[in-house]
Design a protein that fits this description.
By secondary structure, the protein is an alpha/beta fold. It is built from twelve helices and ten strands. The structure holds zinc ion. The site of zinc ion has 5 residues, from loops.
């Protein structure tokens, strides 16, 4: 929508209401899980690799080598761990990452995981013109399909950045779900301008993301501020409460952040704890969206 040429405190009520209502949470989707499972467990990996540096126009080869670590050590560790525990996950992959590492993406699909859209070069949607955002989103889906032969049905916007145009493009593309917004703990149906869309939201949260705890920038004040043991405790508390409520536990991780020797164990311990319950449904985001989507009437 058009920006008003006055300060926010001068905005008329209909204007700020319209902004707030652009994309909202509608009906909460928390049906019974399949096969009498008590809780759903949805683990995801955003395979950013070098695009975190590229999308800002960065030229640091040092920072880009972090991205290559994600491919060389992070992904093999993650895939091996998921294989070992027979857990299927969702991977959100920028089209540039997929072109850099097509074999990695084909392996992800071959091992039964899901790949979803994650931008072209991890661009921020809210600073793009709507037609560029649309063009990049369509081309990203085509590129992922060309490389893996599987058409993605879900999207996680890069950096969870959502523009006024994002949801309408998702609807135009006929995507089943988005996983970038945070209005609930449970899945919900997205509303656009107050209207139902039939699009499922599988909500994320920075609390359940490795990046805010572990990212660092040598030349800025950003430093890891919490130990891997403490991050594990936070994730476990999120899981335990989701299990008690019979709801969904959703986690967002990054190969170039979690894939280190001193951190990878966090995933394994959470999976072990969840498996020990005996009635947790391990599913991809796509499977969860298909399941909860059936309760949209
Ligand atoms: Zn990302």
């Amino acid at each position: 929508m058009q920006d008003l040429d006055v300060k926010p405190w001068q905005w008329p009520e209909p204007y700020w209401r319209k902004r707030v209502n652009k994309v909202r949470a509608g009906k909460r989707l928390a049906p019974a899980w399949p096969s009498d499972k008590r809780c759903a467990f949805a683990i995801s990996f955003d395979v950013d690799h070098e695009t975190n540096e590229l999308r800002d126009g960065g030229r640091s080869l040092g920072r880009m080598s972090w991205g290559q670590y994600g491919n060389r050590r992070g992904m093999p560790r993650i895939l091996s761990l998921l294989r070992q525990h027979d857990v299927k996950a969702s991977f959100y992959v920028p089209a540039v990452t997929a072109q850099l590492y097509p074999d990695e993406q084909r392996q992800v699909i071959d091992e039964g995981h899901e790949i979803g859209i994650h931008g072209w070069i991890h661009e921020l949607n809210s600073i793009l013109p709507a037609d560029s955002e649309r063009d990049l989103m369509l081309r990203s889906a085509d590129m992922l399909q060309e490389i893996t032969t599987v058409r993605p049905v879900g999207i996680r916007t890069p950096s969870w950045d959502f523009s006024d145009a994002t949801l309408s493009i998702i609807r135009e593309m006929g995507l089943l779900y988005d996983s970038s917004l945070m209005a609930d703990d449970s899945c919900y149906e997205l509303l656009e301008d107050g209207e139902r869309t039939g699009v499922v939201e599988i909500p994320v949260e920075w609390i359940r993301d490795d990046a805010p705890y572990f990212m660092m920038n040598r030349f800025e004040s950003l430093r890891p501020h919490i130990s891997p043991d403490d991050v594990f405790k936070i994730f476990m508390r999120e899981f335990d409460a989701a299990y008690e409520e019979g709801d969904i536990f959703q986690l967002t991780l990054h190969p170039h952040i979690i894939g280190y020797r001193s951190r990878i164990w966090i995933i394994e311990e959470i999976i072990r704890n969840a498996k020990a319950k005996g009635d947790v449904w391990f599913a991809t985001h796509k499977e969860i969206a298909e399941h909860v989507g059936r309760s949209i009437d």
